[in-house]
Every structure is written in C-alpha cells, then in structure tokens.
Amino acid sequence: MSDDALLGMLALTLRVAAVATLLALPPAVALGYWLARHRFRGRALVQALVALPMVLPPVAVGLGLLWLFGRRGPLGPLLEALGIEVIFSWHAAVLAAALVGFPLFARACEQAFAAVDPRYERVARSLGASRLRAFARVTLPLAGRGILYGALLAFARGLGEFGATAIVAGIVPGRTETLALGIWSRIQMGDDAGARALCGASFALALGAMLVAELWLRREAPAAAHAARP
Amino acid sequence: MSRETLVRARVERGGFALDVELKTEARVAVLFGPSGSGKTTLFETLLGLHAASRPTVQLAGRWLDDPTRGLGTRVEARGLGWVPQEPMLFPHLDVAGNLRFGMPRAGGGGARALADAIEVLELGPLLARRVDQLSGGERSRVALGRALASGPQALLLDEPLASLDLALRARVLPYLLRVRDSLDLPIFYITHDPDEAQLVGEWVAVLDRGRVVACGEPRAVLWSRAVLPLSESLGLENVIEARVRACADGTARVATRSGVELSVPAPAPLAEGESVRLGLPARDVLLAAEAPGRISARNVLMARVVKVEPTEGGALVHVDAGLPLVARLTQEAVHALELAPGRAVYCVIKAHSLRRLA
Question: Which tens digit of pLDDT belongs to each residue from B119-155?
C-alpha cells in the first residue's frame, strides 16, 4: 500500500467525519434544545427513537439509508431530478456517519441546554431580546462547550463508522474507501500488513479526537457549573 | 399622563392559584407577602410570562394586555426592567457586556440610559470585571444597572435585597433609594421585609396565598389589625428616616424631617448630613405617664396617644411623638397608665434599640 493511498484514505476519513458532524449539527442542536426545554407526554419515546441509530445494527441503518436514498426509494426521484448521486458516493458515507453520530450529538446538546438555567433566557427577553436573539446571544453561548463536546463525540464516532457506510457507500478505493472500509478490504485481500498500518492510523486518529474531547470536557466543567447555578 | 396600574390575573400553576385584582396610581408600588404568596407569579404575569392565562395588565399608564380587545404584548416588547431575585447576570459576558445587553431597545436613548445607570449605581470601576469576580452586593447593582440601561418604562424589582446579608443590604438599599429618587421611573418592588416595604413604597399590596388581602399606604396597611399577624411574623417594626446632625464618642444625633432628635449608636463615625434609616421594634418603645428622671435611655420624647389597638396578648399603642411610633404593651400596662387617645405620655427609647437599616 502506497503512502499516497494511506494519505488519501486519511483525508477522506477526516472529510467524511467533519462534513457529517456539520450536517448533524443543526438538527442535533434543535432537537437537543427542544428536549431540554419541553416536558411532554411521549418525551421518552422521542428520546428512545433518537438513540436508535446508535443501538441498531449498523448494517440495518445502512440498509435503511439505501432504501431511503436509493433510486426506487421515496427520495430517489427527487435526488435524480436534482442530479445528486448519493448511493455509492462519498455523500453516502457522510450520511451514514452523520446518522450514527447523531444520537450522541443530540444527547450531548440536550444535556448542555438542560444545564443552562432557563431564567437567563427570560431575563434576556425581558431586556428586549426576541426569542431568537435570546437563544443566539445567551443560551447558545452558555451551552456552547457542551455542544462542541457533542460535536467531537459525533466526529470521533464518524471516523470509525463501518457497517452502515459499507452498505450505502460501498468500498470504492479513492472515492468511498475510508480507513475503516480500507481495513476491511485489506483483510479481504489478505494484506495483513496494510490492515495493520490502517489500524494504526485509525488508532491515532481516534485517540486524538477523544483526547481533545476529554480535555475539552474538563475545561468546560467550571463554566458549566457556573452557568447552571440558580 | 395617567400612571394608573391595573392588573387582573388568574394564574394556576401546579397546586397554586394566583387570583388578584390590583389598582393603583402610585409610582412606587410594593408587593408584600410571605414566600409562596404569589408575588413572583404576579411579576411573571406583568412580564408576560403567563400569557396563556389571559391576564389584564395596564402598567403605569401603558396597556400591555387586554383580552377584551385582543391585546397582548410579547415579553420582549413590554419595555420592562426586570431584576429577578437572583441577579442572573449572563456569566459569559463581562459587566459592560451585561449592562449593554438591553441597550438596543433603548434606541437613541441607550447611551444616556447606560451612563445614568453607571453613575447612579457607581458601576464605573466594575465595567471590565468578569461576573464571577463580583461580590454579592456588586452583582445586585449590576443586575439593577442592566435593567436601567435597557431604557425601561418601568422597573420590576423582585426581592433585590433578599439574597444579601444584613451588612450588604445596608450598602445596597441606598442605591435602590437613589434610583427611586433620581429617576422618574415607575417601580414595582417585591419584598417580604416590612422594613423595606415601609421605606421604599408609597403604596403596598399585601399578598397572602395568592390573593390580595389589603392595599394602601404602607405604614397604615402593615400596622392595620387585619395584616398585623402576617407583618409581625415577618418582622414588622417602626421605621424612621433621619439625617445626621452630629457624631461623637460612638453616638450620633440624628433628626427626622419633622425635627425630632434621637441618639443612635454609631460604631463607625457618620458624616454630618448623611441620611440614615432606622428600625425600632414596637416592643422596645417604653411609655411613661410622667417624665422620667435621670435614666440611661438616651431618647425621651413627649408624645400623644393616637390609638390603642388591642391585639392578642396585649395592645399596640400608636403615638404621635413628632413622628409616628407604635409601642407594644401588655393590657395591664395600658390600664395602669390609663392610655387612651389624646393622653400625653413620654416615649422612652434606648439608643441601642435603634438599628441602622441603611
């Protein structure tokens, strides 16, 4: 395996995980905020549904995506009309990584928002800030570190995503072959040395991401405690 | 402009129901009552946080909610300067950032409102501080300043002194009174402290278990027979406002506006002309039928009995000693001194019974 191939896989893996995290960010923030601020019947059901992509067999998640975005799926005609090819492209890998990372992300956002005393928002509104401005200027900054922690978790989860990605993106060297898929195909080819090298790269990447997340969490602790104080 | 305030609200929350109707023209209105009486829920109603219960709110002449006309004003459009019970300063902003938060609403007057707030509350030295570097009293002042800098049409102060210890209260209360006196703003003030209610307000509404049980001039209302059990349980006492005439040897001579002079302890020297507010428990006021001779109590005032009000286990004797005072006596003492309206008496008050509030 050439260095170029390894670097290519590394770059693709990082790109897929990063874009997936960005893609999951708005819905994770929105859902996390909604769950943190509202008590309603069926809340537990919503939370359980949100957690599903994390606990379902990844292969099943992949099949679901395949059906949803496939040519004969409900979104197929729309995507075809727009000329967007999802299945077996790196977009599919992004979708898979975003979906499996979403539960962690949304839960982290929910906890981050729950730790922000809602009275800050009320004070902000009493001072003339619209709902949106109060959210953007007060709640979001106060929950910011918790949200970023969630983003790092989702990013780290995306780095290693395999099962769902293999189904919807396939293993196309140079196009959809991320590190995790690369390891699998090396094993299939009997290239143990290559598989080991890719494992090493994955290990370094995952460790780096989690280390950053943990350090972030530690840094966050005093500020969050302050924000949560009544 | 009419300053009329009119509130009709029925708010149910969990097991608690607030059911009030209020009407006043006072610029400084106090909502007084024990905790759990619905004061904060009433404030939340004024703030528009209970819009679902369709209240009627006219605040200091401005109509905010009127269900009969389909009028309802959003929280951010009500133009109120709310200081919640906890200061709730935004922890991610410094003091200046907190003060500026509401300025956009004040529009062109924002800079002026901010400058006024900084001056009246002496916030200049704090501007660059982080919020977690402030003391309790400083936090309260910044929260008040933040509300003022938003150019509000009225101030809503929710127990602004309750989270402070006694010494800090005495430091912050003068700022509150300065805001009251130097800015021509309608103020609504929540407290469970009868001293504050008498000092701050020109009108008080007494809340108990979600209802208004009495309202009117603070002294008259708090000392009225109907409210007395409640106000006494919360520490009702005589409140005296005075100015320092002289200060020496740990004692200050102060004079009320009506010219009555009193001796009060002054552990720290007081400047001449400084204004002080004193608390004096009714049980610490002695009445004598004849002028006492040499006596250690430093204050002996000639007075006339205004009213004798029997209470549980005794009587409250209202006297006019140049300033209105109330003495708590036993029925036995009332009979022995033959106290009745019009009777001349001497009021005896130890200097140490006068506690400085601010």
Answer: 888 899 999 999 999 988 899 999 999 999 999 999 9
Q: How do B203-208 and B28-32 pair as beta strands?
A: parallel
Kindly report the average pLDDT of chain B as a whole number: 92
pLDDT at B217 over 60: yes
* Torsion A129-A132-A133-A138 (CA) sign: positive
* CATH code where residue B125 lies: 3.40.50.300
How many angstroms away from the CA of A102 is the closest CA of chain B? 27
Alpha-carbon gap, residue B158 to B33, rounded angstroms: 12
A129 vs B76, B80, B88: nearest CB: B76
CB-based contacts of B316-320 (< 8 A; 24+ apart in sequence): B316/B223, B316/B228, B316/B282, B317/B287, B318/B223, B319/B287, B319/B345, B319/B347
Contacts of B92 in chain A (CB under 8 A): 138, 141-142, 223, 227
Q: What is the nearest CA distance from A220 to chain B, expressed in angstroms?
A: 12
Query: Nearest-CA distance from B163 to chain A in Å?
Result: 12
Q: B89 and B122: one domain?
A: yes
Please determine, for residue A208, whether its predicted confidence score (pLDDT) is greater than 70: yes
Task: Indicate the pTM of the whole model.
Answer: 0.83
Q: Does A138 sit within 8 Å of B76, measured CB to CB?
A: no
Q: Which of B235, B260, B295 is the last residue of a domain?
A: B235
Interface test with B, best of A126, A135, A139 (most B CBs within 10 A): A126
Q: Does the pLDDT of residue B303 top 50, yes or no?
A: yes
